[in-house]
Structure formats: C-alpha cells, structure tokens
Amino acid sequence: MGSTSAENHGTEGVGRRDLIKRSAALGLISVPTMSFLSACASSGGDDSGDKAKAGKKTAKNPLAVNDTAGMEFVLFDGGFGKEYAEDAVKIYEKNFPKASVKFSATQKIQSTLQPRFNQGTPPDLIDNSGAEQMDMGVLAGKNQLTDLTPLLDAPSYDDPGKKVRDTLRPGIVEMGRLDGEKVWILYYAYTVYGVWYSQKALDSLDEQYPETWDQMLAVCEKAKKKGMAGWTYAGKYPYYLPFSLYPMIGKVGGREVLDAIDNLEPNAWKHPAVKACFDAYYELYKKGYVLKGTPGLDHIQSQTAWAEGKALFIPNGSWVENESANVIPEDFDLAVSAPTGIDSSDKMPFGTIWASGGEPFIIPAKAKNAAGGMEQLRIMLSEASSKNFTGKVKSLTAYNGGTDGVTLTPGLKSGVAALDKAGENVVNPRMQDWYVQLQKEKIGVSGLGEMMAGRLTPAEAIKKIQAFADETANDDSIKHYKHQ
Amino acid sequence: MQHGKYRFIVGFLALPLGLYALFVVWPFIQSIYYSFTDWTGLSPEFKMVGFDNYSRMLDDDIFWKSLQHSLLFALLLPVVTIGLALFFAFMINVGGRKRKNGPVITGVRGSSFYKIVYFFPQVLSIAIVALLFAFAYNPDSGALNSLLRGIGLDDVQPLWLGDPDLALWAVMAVLVWSTVGFFVVLFSAGMASIPAEMYEAALLDGANRVTTFFRVTLPLLWDTVQSGWVYMGILALGAESFAVVQIMTTGPGGPDYSTTVMVLYVYQKAFRDGQAAYATTIGVALLVVTLAFAAVVMRLGRRERLEY
Description:
The structure holds two protein chains of two kinds. In chain A, about 40% of the residues lie in helices and about 10% in strands. Chain A has 20 helices and ten strands. In chain A, helix 3 links the parallel strand 1 and strand 2. The longest helix of chain A has 18 residues. Chain B is mainly α. Helices cover about 70% and strands about 0% of the residues of chain B.
C-alpha cells in the first residue's frame, strides 16, 4: 500500500496481464465445479423462540391453533397438481379468517427448502415429494421433524367421536414411522401398484388376467402371435419393475421374505422365492415377450408404446392413469391386477397386492406454527377434501373411503376392486423410501435392468443385488431401518 | 516515479478483487472445509470428522467409475470436437478450389450456409438438445433406429442409451454435435485474421491442402486452439456432461453406472442422498482433476508465439 520500496517487488510486480489471465482461468474453472455447492452453505440457524403461541383449544379447534398466526404451506407440484391443496387452504382461511396463509407450489422441493432448513426457518407444512424429495431419514435423524401423533389423536374433521388415525387406510400410520413410536410423515395419497393393462386388449385375445405363470406365458404367446408384445416397462428406470415383482415375491414366499429384504438381512435375496420370481421374469425376456427396445425407453415412452397397444402389460402405479391420460385411448378400459404368481403352492393367495401411501407430508421441527400445519392436514383428511382429491386427480387418499358419489374412472375403479379383493393381503415393501440409491440405481438399474436386458442371468443378478444390499448394510453413512 | 504506483493499482483492483474473494475464493474455502465434516445438507448441525470422507471416497467404486468417465470426457471430447471444428473451419474458409474470377483463397461452395448450419445447435439450450437426442435414441420409435430399419437393417437395432457399451459414446456424440459449431466459428474468426498472402505464397510453392493446413493454418491458429482446448475440457468435466448425462441416460448414470460422471455424482450425493459433506469431498476431487487438466494442456501446448 503505497510502498516506497519498489525494489522489493521489482522483478515480480503484480503484472496486470498475468493477474487478469490467472483470475480469468480460475474463474472459468470454478464456475462448473464447485460454486453451486456452497450456495447452500449452512449459516447456523438461530433458535430464537419466535414460535406462534398456542391458541384456545375448543371442539372446533382441537389442536389449539393460534387463529392470528400465519401459516406457510409448500406443496410439491407434480402429477397431482396443486388445485386440491389450494381448495384445502381455502377452508383453512375460512376457519381462521384472521390468519394469513402463504401457499406455494414447486417441483424443486429440495433446492427451495434445503437452505431454509439450514437456516432454521422452514415452512409449517411440506409435501416432500418428487424427484427432489429430501431424505426423510436424515431429516428425522437430525431432529428436523415434528412428531405427528397429536394430529393422529385429534378428533377427525367430520366426526368428533372418531380420531384422525381411525379414519386412515391400513398401513398409513406405520409408514409414517421410521424407527420407534413417533410418526414423522403423513402420506396423503394412496397408491395401488401392480400390472396395468387394457381390458379391451385382453378381451380381444379371448383371455382372462393370468393367475399362474404358465397362464401368463400362454397369454404372452397368444399376444405375440397377434403381433403384440406381452410386456414393456420403463427400461431406463427399471425400478418400476418391482411394482409387480416385489408383491410377486411376497405372494410366492410370504411377507417375511420382503421384510428380510427391507431389513437388509444377510442372504435375504437368496431365498428360493426370489430366484423363482427372477427366473419367471427372465423367461419373459428369453421367450421374446418383452417389447423390442424396451431397455432404452423411459417411463413416458414405454407408457406410450403400451397405450398404443404395442404391449399388453406394464408394471406401474395408480398415477399412470393421470400421467398417461392424453395417450390412453377412450375405449382402452384401463385395469390393474395384482401380480401373477408362480402356481398354487404360493404362500399367499392371488390378489396379494402392493398398495401404500404416496405424497409424504411433513411438519418441520422448527416450524413457527406446527399446530397450523397439522390443522391444515386435518382439513385435508376430511371426507370432503378427500373426495375432492379423488375426483380431481384420479387417485385415492389416505382417508379410508371417500369414494362414494365420486364418478370413478376405469383405472381407479379397478384399483378399488383390486384392493377389495386383496383384503388383508396388502404388502408394503419399503426399499424405495428407506434406501433410495440401493433401490433405484443398484437393484433397479444395475440388477433388474441388466437382467431384463439379457445381460445378466437371474443367478448373477441375485448375486450382484445381494452384494449391493450387504454393502448398504455395512455402510454407516446410511441410516438403517427395521420392520417392527 | 515509482511512488504511488501500488496505491494506484490497489485502488483500481480492491473492489473487483474483494468481490472475487467473496464470491469465488470464499466458497472454495468453505467447500473444502465442509469436506472435513459430516454435514448432511439438511440441518445446520455438523461436526468435524477429519479425513473420513476422503478415505471413504478412495474405497468408493462408483466414485472411481465416475472419475474414469470424467477423464474420458476431458481427454476425448476436446480431441474430437476441436479436430472436427478445425477441419470444418478450414474447408469453409480456405479449402475451396479456385474459381474463375473469384478470390484466390476461398471456402468450399456454400460455405456461408454451412457456417450457419454448424452454429445452429449452439443456439439451443443443452437441455433441449439432450431431450431431442433422447427421442432420437429411442430404440422403439426413435429416428436412428427408424433410419436403420428404413435402409433394411432390421436386425441392427441397438438399444443406444440402454446399452452399457454404447451409452457413454452416445452421450459424447451429442456433446460433439452441440459444441462443434462454436469452435467452427471461433476458428473461422482466427483464420480470417491470417493474411491471405501467406496462403498465396504457399499455393505458389505448390503446397496442397493438407500441407497448407499443417504448415500455415494450424501454427498461426495455435493460441486459439489451445484456449479452445481448455475451454472444451472444462465444459466436458462440468456443466455440459452433467446436463446430458442427467437428462438422457438411464438411471440417471447409465445402465450399470456406464455413464455416471463426477459432477452428476456430486449432485446425487448432495441433493438426493443427504450427504452434502461427502459431495463436497468429490467436488474437491473434481477441482483437482480440472486444475490438473488445465495445467497439463497449458504445459503441453506451450509453443513459440508466431507474430504476423
């Protein structure tokens, strides 16, 4: 700084050109590499107690919501849109006219909310869903979530004599637990997974939906003769295959096989039932019953090929009806079935299906108005809001019932029928919400995807998947869960 | 007379350097700091874990796969892209035959049209390009396989992005397609500034096109080529490879991790698996790779500067 002793720096003076060159080079490098990472640098949230004071507990306000406190609600704007939530927000605003509600919908849940969690200023209610879903295990493990037990024990919106938890479909409360008794997540939608097909196409083959694998192969053979492939699936995202494969494994070997897999028990994948089911699926490939080119198709492309009648069956979830609405022909007569089993020696009856909650709602631990968030959920779990959802987006909700008087679309109707038929025999594998990377990339893409593309035999696939599962079990940077 | 020189310099540079330190250098330091913690990215709490993340990284097969692919991107893409771009630029600007009454040095017929054609992909966002090609690679109804069927090759129906042996090449081809035009234009500009007399002299001496290119054009264009080389390598390591792999390939990350790259792995660890600290560790590795790449290219490419 204004140094007079220039000779100190004489030979190695700043050198404008060099400086500019160097800084330009550095800047150029930094842009694509790391700067985006630190954009979410944590800035140490302050835990000042600016939480909303509790309101007055009344019959109409069992959660003691402060009727002047603001409430912020962030929704995942995905396949179900945002209208259903907006309608529910209107009810909240009507019930608490003095409260200001801030509602927003986004597809970028994590990029929007991660910095706010880091700063300790999250919203009061979040639909933590979609491709950018935040890891629930991490959130719960780091004490970032509110226990929803008070909501479950509150009287339901429609009937003060009934608790909210008694109005929910089976499995919803259990799914919201990670470990221990606390309920961190409320799954609002209710998804039926299985084998989806066109009843019309099946009728044109003069066939019923096959109950044993021999029948399945016979139906596929018949379809092949008519120039139609038996199966297609989201080849680029082969983790759609488990939607019918996992319940099939459960049907063949019993629930405990699926539980062992979820618990990452040693040799869980080496159970004979897994081998039998893998062999069965591999046979579809071997006999040429899978639509040509399927391993290179994404979910939309495969659904489109299926809707165009190029393939008979596709493993999928009940959102497919809404997602493919624009490509499914009028007279398609969409139907879903529980997966085909091997034969009559299977442990569980035909009809065993995978159904479980979707659209996970959470309330952050640092929410200013947690009671408000819960009240909003209580409103959404009323019969009227549930009917509104089902009518608008062709999907069931966690509310048990709520379909009377709603005109059901063919797919939804068939889903309800499949649930009725299944009765108690509903399985709920947890891989996809407990171990995302294991389920999607390792089991899905590197295991099942490779096998169905004919690049692995079932035995090799099982060996590989077991190794992946062991790796995850031994990785202490991942939180582990157990069925209780 | 030296008095006040540094005050002058500091006065001018303080603000930009301050901004640079705050927005470029500081995030670097922060990222490196986080790589020594167990920060999840989802809560403000974390503690120091020393070199745990680094030793974990060295044991991580997927990390090594992604490093391998990233290096392949950084080495191969610039060679192919810049090689093609040099060829195209040469043909457009110099490679034409002499036409009656025309200038001595000229491009091939229709060269101005080609220039537009080559540059066109540059106008499209990389996301759009990736989507377009994802459709073209569709094995069932995509343009490529339809073309193959059209010319009677019914048996040759590759799975493209669904085949672990092809997916990486398919993705690279898209990057070449989308970036080559930029370099054609860059090199064309460089060639335009080479004096025509040099070419005329070479022609009079009986040099053919190949000799002209290697003896005249390339040496005079060397600086531009070198900058282009570094630029392309950084693109291939960073933003562009992320976009195409994320949008186009299976998984994403390709069948059996055949296309996963470092930037994608950073993203997945930070924003899918809730392991932001481990992600910054991979980010640091990526920084090292990028710096090493730039240093190697600068060093290997050092040549005497030709003045003209």
